Amino acid sequence: MSERIKVLLSEEEVDRRIQEIGEQISRDYEGKQVHLVCVLKGGSFFMCELAKRISVPVSLDFMSVSSYGSSTKSSGVVKIVKDLDEPLKDKEVIVVEDVVDSGRTLSYLLEMLRDRGPRSLRLCTLLDKPDRRVVDVEVDYTGFQIPDKFVVGYGLDYDQKYRNLPYIGVVEFD
Ligand code: IMP
Ligand code: MG
Question: pTM for the complete prediction?
Answer without folding.
Answer: 0.93
